[in-house]
Amino acid sequence: MTVRDGLIAALLQVVDPSIVLRRPEELMLYEYDGSALDQGMPEVVVVPRTTAEVAACVRVAAQIGAPIIARGAGTGLAGGSVPEQGGLVISLARLNRILAIDPVARTARVQPGVVNTDLSLAAAPYGLHFAPDPSSQRASTIGGNIATNAGGPHCLKYGVTTNHVLATTVVLGNGRVIEVGSATLDAPGYDLLGVVVGSEGTLGIITEALVRLTPNPEAIYTFLAIYDDLDAASATVSAIIADGIIPAALEMLVGQGIAAVEAAVQAGYPADARAVLLIEIDGLREEVIEQAQQIEAICRSFGVRELRAAQDEAQRARLWAGRKGALAACARIAPHYHIQDGVVPRSRLPELLRLTEEVAKRHQITIVNIFHAGDGNLHPLLLFDLRHPGVLDRAVAASEEILQACVAAGGTISGEHGIGIEKRDYLGWIFGPADLAAFADLRAVFDTGNVMNPCKLLPSGSSCADIRYARGALRAIDRGAWI
Ligand SMILES: Cc1cc2nc3c(=O)[nH]c(=O)nc-3n(C[C@H](O)[C@H](O)[C@H](O)COP(=O)(O)OP(=O)(O)OC[C@H]3O[C@@H](n4cnc5c(N)ncnc54)[C@H](O)[C@@H]3O)c2cc1C
Prior knowledge:
The chain is of the alpha+beta class and about 475 residues long. About 35% of the residues lie in helices and about 20% in strands. It is built from 16 helices and 18 strands. The strands form four sheets. Strands 15-12-14-13-17-18-16 form a seven-stranded antiparallel β-sheet, sandwiched between helices. The chain has a five-stranded antiparallel β-sheet with strand order 5-6-10-8-9.
């Protein structure tokens, strides 16, 4: 009996066969995530309905020593939910209920498969929303957001996911179920919640969470600032924050990306602009009016070509549709992409943007910049066609060069997408051997059998040497196949 057959037989003994997926055409759907670089076929996938079922599956796989990979919506951009070594994928898609909303405590108890936007929609009648708003929010799950400590345009003011999680239920690699965090402030004991958030499925599987809900602001102003000069747009970003304003969001789109977004979404961005800023402020009405005047003065002092304010909710939604649909829109430029996630101090944005353009030319790769400027979180989007020989090597080389420049500028390698497979070997650029050893020791305490998403997040050691994933592989489709 193969390991795969043994794993399937053991799973069928402990859970309902209807939650066990094993046909090749079912497994193919779990081969990849939102990143174009890494793929791997799971041995088997389960789609449990309860924490008890998750724990039963984990126990079975751990006994066999099979890798266990948690999967939310698979929108991750670092290969985190890719089963590069095969094993068991546990999809949280059926654990998708909002269990309770408490408008007085401003909290929600949710299962991990709840889609981010669905939680905000459910909280809307109470004048509340879930603040972390990754651009993938119409698909990505709360479990995935917690596991990657997701950010989003509005995290500049409201903080990233870790600031909005109070407690979670976690199934550990030995099948034990623990509760971390608390509904009350200042719970005694170690801050295990802080360790679990952002752990990318390497410490356990989140099967329930208590999260904060944030009151909707009284007033919102949204501006589109249009520039003919890239440095002027970057300087505006630093000046707004230096003036004491923390906008709710401060996003930038540069050059070719603006044209691609406009062609796809018709958000009203001028296709010939060198850069545009999407600036949003919110809060009490009087405060927002005052900040709007300050922002207008700053934009004008840097020679903005035009400053447009959204006049109503429909215009605001249109401006945001452009930003949130940007990644998909760039498929018009090339069929494959690799998106980077480096962070730099805001004051270093102009030089990093210039470097990105120079790297693009040198490596003959199209690179589009659409990013969270207020956080200094660059998202160079490298666009290419994998059918062209050698293009992936050039893209990876270009991407590494940009990330190294971010680190050299006093920044770091990831602002929000996580480390996954993609950046695990870059951790040594920002942490020393003793730091990395401490991470590995911590991981071993939670995951004694080294089965939870092994070889992700930390630099690959000897046990990860024999990895059978295909970087950038294109699946050959049989002639005449229905696809
Ligand atoms: C168009 C687009 C835009 C994006 N914009 C943003 C953005 O603005 N900000 C941002 O931060 N990210 C963004 N992302 C990346 C991605 O959407 C986020 O990382 C998101 O949090 C992943 O959620 P998911 O449910 O898809 O998780 P998956 O991709 O399925 O998994 C991501 C990681 O979390 C682990 N995981 C998932 N669920 C659980 C669980 N229940 N328990 C334990 N581990 C789990 C997985 O093992 C994996 O390591 C974007 C992606 C796309 C495609």
